[in-house]
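Structural prep section.
Before we set up the soaks we want a predicted structure of the protein with PXL in place, mainly to decide which crystallisation condition to try first. Input record follows.
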Amino acid sequence: MGAVPRVACINDLSGYGRCSLTTALPILSVLGVQACPVPTAVLSKHTGFPDYAFTDLTDAMPAYLESWSDLKFSMIYSGFLGSEGQIAVVRDFFIRQKKNNSDCKILLDTVMGDDGKLYSTYTPALCKAMRELVAFADVITPNVTEACLLTDTPYHGEALHTAEAIALAQQLAALGCGSVVITGIVREDMICNLTYCSGAVFFDTVHRTQCLFSGTGDLFASVVCAALARGRDLDQAVRAAGQFLSSVTQYTLQQNTAAEEGVLFEPLLKELEAYL
Ligand code: PXL
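Run finished without errors. Recording the tokens verbatim:
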């Protein structure tokens, strides 16, 4: 693949609020990975704000991705999808890339909701269809809400017992993906990310910030993606992402900004390389 790993980033462009592509692109770039965006929707602000303009790009995506048929990617990183119709488009892109390039790894961040609630543009039909994509992924990174949605498990908060978390990861793996990372499991004043990989389980625990900032899942998945594209193992990638998230959320908390402003990662970008 050459000196610079290349990643197709399927995600929305939210003009304000630090999430999706405005997070993925700087994180991948600063870690020396070429980030090639595939915008799924353009929003003026992310959906955590009460007012936002939303343009769905489903109709533009088939030609956009078709014109990439000659390109090979080290990874495909898929996040926020704008409509149920995008599932088939993204699935076909996954299949074409894997066929042309069996080394291509797929990281599916199963973005659907958080804190027990769906994001406002997500429909139950889109969530159900998301399961179809899981079967094509090498790694998925659901939060607890998304893990419950994907497995039809009743949601009872972000705190999970170890046995519950492992059972959820096993059910997710049974949907057909390679490895599972369940993010943001709450343990009193700690937060735990569970990695389930070839039957082995790793728990990575970091300090928890007592505030739920928008876009933390995007930041986490973006660091994992860049680390994997750089050849790190999944458990190393998860550890790096967890530690970086812990630092940036603590920094953000000190700045007293509103939660929907997201994580103030910009001042700490220069230090990210040291976490890998
Ligand atoms: O952080 C996930 C996300 C991505 N994209 C958009 C969102 C959200 C969460 O609110 O609104 C547009």
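Observations: Residues 15 and 44 are 5 Å apart (CA to CA).
Flagged for discussion at group meeting.
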